[in-house]
């Protein structure tokens, strides 16, 4: 009978654990980002805690408020500018419907080989603009639905980011207690190796954060140098935008490609070619070299494990996989090494 009671308690605990995971499922991503953000900025939290006289809640509140201002400010600015550009695009389309396209720019006809052909295409589009709009009208609804879906994704991402900043307050405030709780669970699961694996996961996440931030800073600096050489106005603002967009895959081209197109529109073809080459091979190319190096630096993992973790994690989980992939492979690799070593020790004992 006691065995049956024990089995019933275990089943109830499993059901309770599964129900808890089900309730928390919508918030896993936000919780993960909050944990990563808190872990990456934990030295700042310790410094602020000492400054505020060991008042953890006050330090956590001030640091969380700083993150809100740092993250919410650029998002609001980006949203306002995006709304202005959408309004300008709608006005441009209405003007084209009424007046047709403006005259082809003078520089378009001066392009070697294809210049005259491009001017002819431009004039053909202008003459057949009304008929073209009628032809593409059935597809505008699909385009609108696609844009609506993308807008919903962006809105969901902003909501997730907001939740992450809310959660980061609790990670700041209760971080030491949460770390002690996790350490206790690991000790029950794997015994004396708990400290090693906790440090392994923490070190891997820290190196990934350093790799992401360090690569973004390097890309922003290289972009700023390229913009200054090419004479792009607002080079500093564009460099900051490159830093922010470097935190997402394929983000920097969203800055240097429009800048290259602007140079070509102005007729500065030499600088446009320079910035296109600089952006392709220097700004965007450094991501494939510097990020894996920074992530593997200071650890005992083979570089191939880091590369597989970074790129495989991105493919499997999206941007969040940049942190999950290397961590999973690091833990799996260490478990295999430990298992192999323990097997060797057992064989040597007799």
Automatic annotation (TrEMBL):
It is a multi-pass membrane protein. InterPro entries: AI-2E-like. It is found in: Cell membrane. One of its GO terms (cellular component) is plasma membrane. It holds the Pfam family AI-2E_transport. The keyword Nucleotidyltransferase does not apply. The chain crosses the membrane at residues 60-80, 154-172, 221-249, 269-290, 302-335. PANTHER family: TRANSMEMBRANE PROTEIN, TRANSPORT PROTEIN YDIK-RELATED. Belongs to the autoinducer-2 exporter (AI-2E) (TC 2.A.86) family. This is Putative membrane protein. It comes from Pseudomonas batumici.
